[in-house]
């Protein structure tokens, strides 16, 4: 499953386009965010991508989960959204 990493500076519309492309190609994707700003941008991107794939009859769901990751040698908690069609 492809993992799209989102930061607080990510453009939600650009992330939504990438997410829609991955969903059309692979059927599901993961969106990973660390920090409140990044989670905000990730949620916006998921909402926008629902609009992109809805005309194709795809209704998206997002399942949130915690993930422990290493950034610069330091362990951090990330939020992962598993995005797939309902």
Automatic annotation (TrEMBL):
One MF term in the entry's GO annotations: nucleic acid binding
Record protein name field: Stage V sporulation protein S
Source species: Pelosinus fermentans B4
């Amino acid at each position: 499953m492809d993992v799209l990493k989102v930061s607080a500076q990510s453009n939600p519309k650009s992330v939504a386009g990438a997410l829609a492309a991955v969903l059309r190609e692979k059927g599901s994707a993961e969106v990973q965010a660390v920090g409140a700003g990044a989670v905000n941008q990730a949620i916006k991107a998921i909402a926008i991508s629902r609009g992109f794939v809805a005309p194709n009859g795809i209704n998206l769901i997002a399942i949130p989960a915690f993930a422990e990751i290493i950034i610069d040698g330091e362990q951090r908690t990330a939020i992962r959204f598993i995005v797939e069609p309902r």
